[in-house]
Amino acid sequence: MSGSDEPADLARQMREKAQQLAEAAERASDPQERERLEKKSRSMRDRSEQQSGMAAGDVYPQK
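-> structure tokens emitted (63 positions)
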């Protein structure tokens, strides 16, 4: 794997993890656990978008 692929791979892995967390949140029966997982999923997705922007050479984070 070349060094230029690493940021894109990291962003992809983060998106996959965020999706897994979102799915776990949907299955959670405890409202507090569901909220915790949803929050973690959103945070992970935001970071993956930022990482993806960095991989594309965008120096300004998306808001």
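The chain has a mean pLDDT of 84.
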